[in-house]
Amino acid sequence: MASMDISLKEMMAIDGSIGAAIVDHGSGMALGSLGGSKDLDLQVAAAGNTEVVKAKLRTMDSLGLNDAIEDVLITLGSQYHLIRPISGRGGKGLFLYLALDRGRANLALARHHLKGIEERLEV
pTM above 0.90? Predict the structure, then answer.
């Protein structure tokens, strides 16, 4: 099991990472973050992506889908943004958020690494 700090460092070690956060989608607050830049405020990203997760959960409920979100991908011209809800015990209501430089990242490998980080995270 990995701590939040270790998990954030592992997220930032993924090729192309520019920012990582562990977010409480109930409050929209980042419980921890690493990276970011003047163009990527991780606190703003945490709050905004909370709305993405909530909207998707509401839509799934409206459609009667009895399933769970594995991850959400937002593709920008120069970046990928990955949102991965934490499904393990103690992680209910939290998600991993990872922003990647599209030119340096391998999306399939990033998703694979993020899944492993989520599985090892101890909240």
Answer: yes
